[in-house]
Design a protein that fits this description.
This protein is an alpha/beta fold and about 325 residues long. It is built from ten helices and 16 strands. The structure holds NADP nicotinamide-adenine-dinucleotide phosphate.
């Protein structure tokens, strides 16, 4: 049976003003599909980049890559999930909605100790950070420089690198330094003079062995390239087009980039387990009702939200 509910769409290319809340019909799930009743949906920079002028996206387009919710209905051949199960899903298409239909393989169970709002902000940033940490081979001998460490991806990369036993130097605005210290990182402010500031972090001179860039500025890339001897241990998640020229890793979706599908898929259940047992913290700095997706996007576009923004449906 089809259900009607709300969904956020970008009606045109542009800024957050093009977002609309529309009614959509969700048909009964097909083979291998699951309909999830969305309780919360994570906001990611990709959501507003996807409908920006020049993105080439065909509109109208539904938004939202990750959700936390409850299984509402399962299609033929779905063996591992039943109506009523608490789940988290990534990647999904159209997660900013009351209901979303997903293939069963993108789901993972939400442990009871992981609250629904942080769960909605865990996976997209978490799998990206897990990919970066794995691709650069972080271990307990490393000093890891993380650019954009106060953001969704950077904060996850800091925590995953610390869990691997690495020492972490983290770039962020001063307002986030105390927060990063609590995660076990040594913060430095980004901006002019970054290379010298990193070099003055005690005991790291000549020892920065890995860099993970979640910012994409020339400053982040050039500082990384100057500090890390082995360029294959520098990864950018943003400046994918500059990576080949510098000989560094480009991770994500883009020409020549490593999408890391296997690592990212495997990370889903690891991340939910770590978040449920308190080893991984998802800092949610803003929740917005679904209708206010445009306000959430305005905040995300400013680039200093300091954690995850999440939309809620009730
Ligand atoms: N390749 C992939 O697979 C993939 C996946 C997910 C995300 N991404 C990309 O990764 C980036 C980060 O995503 P996110 O979710 O972490 O975003 P976010 O939560 O909005 O974080 C943005 C970060 O950028 C920092 N920042 C802003 N302006 C800066 C500047 N001029 N110099 C240095 N740092 C600056 C912020 O620091 P302060 O707040 O401390 O100022 C904050 O840490 C986005 O571009 C996103 O599209 C890529």
């Amino acid at each position: 049976m089809a259900h009607v509910g709300r969904a956020v769409v970008a009606g045109d290319l542009g800024g957050p003003e093009v977002l609309q809340v529309v009614e959509v019909e969700t048909p009964a799930p097909g083979p291998g599909e699951v309909v999830v009743r969305v309780d919360a949906a994570g906001v990611n920079p990709w959501d507003w980049k996807s409908y920006a002028p020049g993105s080439g996206t065909r509109t109208p387009v539904r938004l939202g890559l990750e959700v936390a919710g409850v299984v509402q209905a399962v299609g033929p051949g779905v063996r591992w999930y039943s109506p009523g199960d608490d789940v988290v899903a990534w990647p999904v298409t159209g997660g900013y909605a009351d209901l979303v239909t997903v293939p069963q393989h993108v789901l993972v169970r939400r442990p009871a100790r992981l609250d629904v709002v942080p769960a909605a902000g865990l996976l997209a940033a978490g799998v990206t950070a897990a990919h970066a940490v794995a691709a650069t081979g972080v271990d307990d001998e490393d000093v890891v420089l993380v650019h954009g460490a106060s953001g969704g991806v950077g904060r996850m990369a800091v925590q995953l690198a610390v869990l691997r036993g690495a020492r972490v130097v983290a770039t962020a605005s001063p307002a986030w330094h105390e927060c990063l210290r609590r995660l076990g990182a040594e913060p430095v402010a980004y901006g002019p003079g970054l290379l010298d500031r990193v070099r003055t972090v005690e005991g790291t001179v000549g020892r920065v062995s890995v860099a993970i860039d979640a910012v994409g500025t020339a400053e982040a890339l050039d500082t990384s390239a100057a500090l890390v001897a082995d360029r294959r241990r520098v990864a950018t998640l943003v400046a994918l087009d500059r990576a080949a020229g510098l000989g560094v890793l480009a991770l994500g979706h883009g020409p020549g980039a490593d999408p890391g599908a296997d690592v990212r898929d495997a990370a889903r259940s690891q991340l939910t387990a770590l978040a449920a047992d308190g080893s991984l913290d998802v800092l949610v700095t803003g929740t917005f009702p679904l209708e206010d997706a445009a306000a959430a996007h305005r905040r995300s576009r400013e680039g200093h939200a300091g954690g995850k923004l999440v939309l809620t449906t009730r």
